[in-house]
Amino acid sequence: MAQRRPDATFVSRRAAGGTVSRGGIHVLLVDDQPKALEALELRLAAIGHRTTLAHNGEVALGVVERDRPNLVVLDITMPEMNGYQACRAIKRLDPTILVLILTAKVESADRFWAFQAGADDFFNKPMDPALLVQKIEALLSGP
Amino acid sequence: MTLAPIVFGVIGVDVATSERLVQLLDTAGVMAAVCTEATAIAGALACDALLFNLGDRPEELSHVARALGHEPRLRRMPRILRVSSHVAVERVAPFGWAVIVPTESLDHVLVDAVAEAVVHIRAGFEEAQNRRKADVAIQASERTSTLLCAAAATLSHDARVLMDIVLGFASNLRDEIAGPTSDTQRAHAMRIVEASADATALLERYTASVRQAALEESEARRALNVASRQVERRRQTDLDVLVRRSVALLEGMAATKQLDVTVSVASALPHPWCDPVQIKQVLMNALSNALKFTPAGRAVKILVASRVPDPSGEGAAAARQAIEIVVSDSGPGIPVEYREHVFGRGVRLERDRQVPGSGLGLSMVRDIMIQHGGSARFEDSPVGGARLVLTIPSDLRWRSDDRTQRSSHVVPRGGP
Which of B234, B324, B349, B392 is deepest in the core (most CB within 10 A)? Predict the structure, then answer.
């Protein structure tokens, strides 16, 4: 797990399609490949969101228990505890935490089981992080 | 193809006659060996066909019949009975001899009967050999299909993961997430974004076509295989016996989980024409699924009953006499939208990844039931859990003429 703070003083005028940053948002990014969520992490940091990276479901659960992030971006294919199991456990701990599944699994069954596990949204990789940030903002601002 | 020699076992109480018969067959080019009383069964088992020389001593039949009764392979072997013509036919008929040759007839009658049996056995060998070849080809095709599909799925997954990283950083450059970029640099980044979208679309088309081709090839082979062998193995089958045998085979699995397995079979059920081996496979697949998905200590029910024909129902099948086998479990059940999906080849619900299995069991169940003119489907269960309904027509008759009966005696070495 690596916690990063945005160190860039530069915040792009184009960041996230012009989304206005709202302070105090904590996004937990979970993927067994650290590189996979780096671009998204930079973009979230650029608009002022706090991000935490976890490389598997169990580490993610630890972060959720301790820090209660506002939103979790969750991969499915991970060793030990997969995304569905992690999603179910997160929702059991705190149903108000939003969970967004981001996976390279493209079967319709994958989408079905993601929502069965309590996910709030589901997207396939590859996904433009600009679009993903819009979806995250939309989820955070509520229905 | 080299022809393996076919050996006739000659069994009889009169050793001198047996030896004469062996010589006779030898002269006619057929290998034969005397199986004396002491070695009758062991010797006979090593042969391809049997010649019983009972002469006018049919009392020996009871001894022979006992031996046959204990050895299924002997029972299936082509058997010729040489018996005196004054012995009443009723006395020997119940033992199902392929051919009966009177002792009084000329030697060539016996030689002809033996030669005919040899032709039958050779045909059986050839058929078995062809089947084995077909089986090997089909297995290879299945393996290739499975490997191709798995490779396509892995490629799709891994390439998407990498494409996501490419797209992510290109998008960040385009949107100046990590710092200001020139117009040209942003234009380049946009090209990478577009190219990654094109690559993803290409990948999707490629994996879909690989999967389709693999499935089609495998389906074609399976259809060929099924058509060639399905009808001949069918016979009137007692489902009660078949269901109970299948349950008995899975008793260990049920006991480990302390499951309460109840079987209820309606009385006076018709015996449908079906391949007992295939239907047993269906029952084993259905039952082992039910046992797998039922939590420890809960119940699994198997119900076999005649279905009342419904002339007003949809399609011709609804109006036919049929037997329904219903397997209900107390597991998590199958969501309505997945009840058709689960019959697909290689399909497994993500939820069940932890449960061992290949995703082929249910597709096999449905294929076999359809080949028998029946059906397999999941229905709503009033008590929750999955409820698999298998239907098999009970009004069908396949040919059961004498030729089929005779050829069923011809079982090649090693069995089919």
Answer: B392
